[in-house]
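Structure tokens
________________
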Amino acid sequence: MSQIQALTKRKSVREYHKRGLKAEALSFIEQAIRPPYAVANGDLVDIRFLENGTDVQTKLAGLAGYAGVMIEAPHYLAVFVEPTPKAYRAAGYYVEKLLFDAMEYNIGTCWIHVGQPEAAKARLGLETDKSLVALVALGEPLEENAIAKFFQRIKANKPSVYSPGGYGDFDVQYEERRSDRHATVDLVYLDTWGNSLTHDELEQRNLLEIYTLMKNAPSWGNRQPWKFIIDGHDIVLAIENNERGDVASDNLDGGIAMFYFDLAMNQRGFSGQWHPLYENNYRVPGDYTIVGKYTVE
């Protein structure tokens, strides 16, 4: 099974066995969160494993989760960062890669919003000079052999056992199809903002599947807030600013988009690197933020 197939089915898990993760899975998590992190600006990120899920739920009641109600899990990750956009993006990229890789070990995961980060950090009692930006629930999915069944469903083209929320869908209600999801061609411009490519033009460039995947990649609230501008060998990524002015969520989304775009390009035989981009030469409107450019090598 290709990583592209797994990418299309990456979902959050909301219900877990009370028992902890098995030794092999714990070993994977322990190694994955051990710095240095293989991502640009990874030194600005600090990921901690919280082994006692029950203790975490008690301490963070009212401070994190859905309307302050925590998702119950045997373990959690606490994601700390320097409070800067590039650090949020680094965390989004690296943690989402970790969660994607965790599927191989039958580890179910779910990003959790932290409504009161400073109070939550104090209750956890962890020593770090970085800010708490998110939690991640970890555990074995409640359904037995969920990951194995997940891969079987991919081959059979059946619905996954996972909820369709994906990363950071902080609304309790979900729909299998969202009417507001962008058409693929609406995600991609050529040379400048608003200059859309046709379906056929994307296909001719061998890029149609990549952007179709990005249309459905996980994001906060299932907004899919990204747009891409193709400029020669550069592909510019812009993220729509959320209504709450939450810079952390926007840039976490940016990092997650970077990871999935990187993965999709690699799986389709392209190689490249993400770079910062500080100038807006593409007429990107003020309600979007340019978070970087991918240069095809």
Remarks:
- The first strand starts at residue 45 and ends at 50.
- The chain has a mean pLDDT of 84.
